[in-house]
């Protein structure tokens, strides 16, 4: 019998551990949309470079090529399309406006810092002179930067999404557990689900204006946008929750009856764990719908987010406006993708499914 070299065994053991770590990391690469990293790491570790190269081409090369062809077509065709604001900007002009918006944000940050420095100096002088009645702490009220508007939109969509989830999940559980509740809710879902945010917005605006004080914690424009998001985005979560609860294995339901579980225990120990995959699917769909609806809501409600930015640039009508609107569109795309990945990561943490 040929003796096996201990060094060879050690190398193979290290290689096996390396592939095990890569396979574990692959689960999170799938969640984050970075599945192309797995074949790169496997190829670097020496696992069939030819096969891994083909996988790299499929997962990374083809998408990059498609994006490159899209940018080429955009750059070639855009100058040929004339609008009231001039030719449609190409990728170069849009990227130039990205730098311009970033520079504007830096200048506004410098103005804000200078404002607070002057205020602190004045307050320190008043305190030194014993004139404490003249000490004032004012908030800087300069124009919001592009980054501020992005943050406002994210806050608004999460607030509306949270309200939608608080309403939709309990109603979905109720509809899934009770045939009578399902019969009562189903017509309402079918009636209100197709309603456009543009139809909800004037109704919400009038109700918020009539019932909400001007000195409240939230701005009225913020509430109008967030509630409009809620009304348009709660339906996917409600429908998927009801479907998930109604699809629970009948054997589990019978076990709960044998164990004489009360309603709270049945919901927390049996219903929610079993229905969680479909609930998260509904939440992902709801967040996507909410993010899509938000831009239109902010345009009309004048909530100082990305929607208002797009509307202001459209009204501005300068030669740079169209390129800036395209920057906003690309920002919306990127943030929408990130929000979906975040929800999928949460779904992967709390459920046992691995379907994208």
Q: What would your notes on this structure say?
A:
This protein starts with 5 loop residues before the first helix and ends in a 6-residue tail after the last helix. It is 78% helix and 1% strand. Helix 5 runs parallel beside helix 8 and helix 10 runs antiparallel to helix 12. The protein has 12 helices and 2 strands. It has a two-stranded antiparallel sheet with strand order 1-2. By secondary structure, the protein is mostly helical. Strand 1 and strand 2 form a beta hairpin. The model has no long low-confidence stretch (mean pLDDT 86). The longest helix has 39 residues.
Order of helices and strands: HHHEEHHHHHHHHH
Largest beta sheet, briefly?
Answer: 2 strands, antiparallel
Number of strands: 2
**Mean model confidence by pLDDT:** 86
Distance between the termini: 50 Å
Class by helix and strand content?
mainly alpha
- The proportion of residues in beta strands is under 5%
Number of helices: 12
Radius of gyration: 27 Å
Low-confidence stretches: none
Shape: globular
Strand order of the largest sheet: 1-2
Helix content: over 70%
């Amino acid at each position: 019998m040929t003796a096996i070299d201990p060094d060879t065994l050690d190398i193979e053991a290290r290689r096996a551990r390396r592939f095990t770590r890569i396979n574990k990391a692959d689960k999170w690469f799938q969640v984050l949309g970075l599945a192309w990293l797995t074949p790169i790491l496997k190829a670097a570790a020496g696992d069939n470079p030819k096969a891994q190269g083909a996988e790299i081409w499929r997962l990374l090369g083809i998408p990059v090529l498609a994006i490159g062809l899209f940018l080429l077509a955009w750059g070639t065709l855009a100058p040929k399309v004339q609008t009231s604001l001039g030719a449609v900007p190409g990728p170069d002009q849009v990227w130039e406006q990205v730098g311009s918006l970033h520079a504007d944000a830096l200048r506004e940050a410098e103005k804000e810092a200078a404002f607070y420095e002057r205020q602190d100096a004045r307050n320190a002088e008043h305190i030194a002179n014993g004139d404490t009645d003249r000490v004032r702490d004012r908030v800087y009220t300069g124009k919001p930067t592009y980054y501020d508007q992005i943050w406002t939109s994210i806050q608004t969509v999460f607030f509306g999404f949270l309200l939608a989830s608080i309403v939709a999940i309990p109603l979905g559980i109720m509809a899934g557990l009770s045939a009578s509740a399902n019969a009562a809710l189903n017509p309402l879902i079918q009636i209100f689900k197709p309603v456009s945010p543009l139809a909800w917005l004037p109704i919400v605006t009038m109700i918020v204006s009539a019932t909400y004080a001007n000195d409240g914690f939230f701005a009225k424009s913020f509430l109008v946008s967030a509630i409009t998001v809620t009304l348009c985005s709660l339906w996917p979560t409600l429908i998927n929750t009801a479907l998930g609860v109604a699809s629970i294995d009948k054997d589990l339901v019978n076990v709960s009856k044998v164990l004489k579980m009360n309603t709270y225990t049945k919901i927390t120990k049996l219903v929610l764990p079993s229905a969680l995959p479909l609930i998260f699917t509904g939440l992902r769909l709801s967040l996507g719908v909410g993010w899509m609806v938000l831009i239109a809501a902010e345009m009309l409600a004048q909530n100082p987010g990305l929607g208002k930015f797009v509307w202001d640039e459209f009204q501005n009508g300068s030669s740079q406006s169209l390129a800036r609107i395209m920057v906003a569109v690309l920002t919306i795309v990127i943030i929408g993708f990130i929000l979906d990945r975040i929800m999928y990561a949460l779904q992967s943490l709390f459920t046992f499914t691995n379907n994208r």
